[in-house]
Amino acid sequence: VKVGEPVKLVFNRISDKGCLDQLNIPALNVKQQDLPLNEPQEFDLDTSKAGEIDFACGMNMFKGKVVIE
Fold it and tell me: What domains lie within the chain, and their CATH numbers?
């Protein structure tokens, strides 16, 4: 995404299998947040400066990131 562009990150857990029932987003101080089944969870991201915002499942097995340029 571009610096200054408003971004909302949405997670919608559609399976009760595996470790995807919890979420970590260190930059937002989100630690082991439960993700209810079939209930989208929204997170507004701070895009005021370039960088990366990492996220992962509760066990840190599934990972991703948002790159801000």
Answer: 7-68 (2.60.40.420)
Q: What proportion of the chain, given as a percentage, has pLDDT over 90? A: 94
Higher pLDDT, 17 or 49: 49
Q: How far apart are CA 48 and CA 29, in angstroms?
A: 17
How far apart, in whole angstroms, are the C-alpha atoms of residue 69 and residue 56? 21
Cα gap 9→11, rounded to integer Å: 7
Neighbours of 57 (CB within 10 A): 20
How many CB atoms are located within 10 Å of the residue 58 CB? 18
Q: 27 — phi, psi (to 5°)?
A: -65, -20
φ, ψ dihedrals at 14, nearest 5°: -115, 5
